[in-house]
Amino acid sequence: MFTEMKSRYLILFSILGVIATALIFTLIGADTVTMEIAVQLAFYIVVPYFFFHYYWTQNPDWSFSEVITTKGVKTWLPGIAGMVLVSIAFSLTMFWLQLAILYPVFPWFAELLLEPGEMPGGLGYELFMLLTLVVLAPVVEEFVFRGVFLTRFAAKTSMWGGILLSSLLFGLLHLDFVGSFLFGIIASLLYLRTGNLLLPILFHMFNNALAALSVYVPIGWFAAIDWFLVSSTADIQSKALANVIVLIISALLTAWIIYRLAKGLGEKMAERTRDVPVADQDFR
């Protein structure tokens, strides 16, 4: 189904939707919190709804079961949990690496990155942001990046062209570019290997849930990873060795995960397309 959806239109409508929403709420004098909520709603609900609704109305025979199913998911859950832990460890140590590079040259910027984030709104705002981070973003971003972008780019280039281009766009949308890029590759491989978008959605949800936990849980609760977790500029040097070790191990594990998911995938995709009528093929 995703091959019929134009990725350029989705990109264009997303940009225009965010700009129009920001402009409208600026003109009416909305405060920062209201503006942020409005932009999030436009990006994660309004634009995706109209985009996907248009194609679904044009193709009433489409069904979510074509791309999402609970069948076989249970056997993947332990593996997904392990992938999330590796992804979090890699992202944390990549953050240390960025700080280690920045601090000697731009100490003020490194200190800014280490400042704890503050929620500008009240309880309602916090609940909305938590819902967006843990539920809305994983569902919508997987439909967009692993559904539309991966499928369209793969159809126009190759399987790996689709994986790399969609993951590159995914990385550019996040502050942790390297970690997000590799995260996108793993999520793409999960989808291609199983044909089930629910697996990358769960992978994304578990990852974001741990990220949200770090915002709401006191830093002292993370004693298990305190030996390499960087929370101040003093930690950049004092925990350098620990971070180098975790970075190397998590990078090797990430490479192994990608290798295992990609192993034999080309042949698997070829078999899948041979069993599907040409008009319905998602990847060529």
List keywords for this structure.
284 residues, mainly alpha, 2 domains, globular, transmembrane, hydrolase
Describe what this molecule looks like in 3D.
This is CPBP family intramembrane glutamic endopeptidase. It is an enzyme of class 3 (hydrolase). InterPro entries: CAAX_protease, Rce1/LyrA-like_dom. This protein has 284 residues and is mainly alpha-helical. Helices cover 74% and strands 0% of the residues. It contains eleven helices and no strands. The chain has helices at 7-27, 32-58, 73-102, 107-114, 123-156, 159-172, 177-194, 198-216, 233-238, 240-262, 265-274. The two termini are 14 Å apart.
Concise overview:
74% of the residues lie in helices and 0% in strands.
The domain count comes to 2
Query: From the alpha-carbon coordinates, what is the Rg to the nearest angstrom?
Result: 20 Å
Q: Classify the helix fraction into a percent range.
A: over 70%
| Order of SSEs | HHHHHHHHHHH
Report how far the terminal alpha carbons are from each other. Answer: 14 Å
Number of extended strands = 0
- The multimeric state of the shown protein is single chain
Overall mean pLDDT score? 87
Largest sheet: none
Instruction: Note poorly predicted spans.
Output: 276-284
Which structural class is indicated by helix and strand composition? Answer: mainly alpha
Shape summary: globular
Strand content: under 5%
Separate helix tally:
11
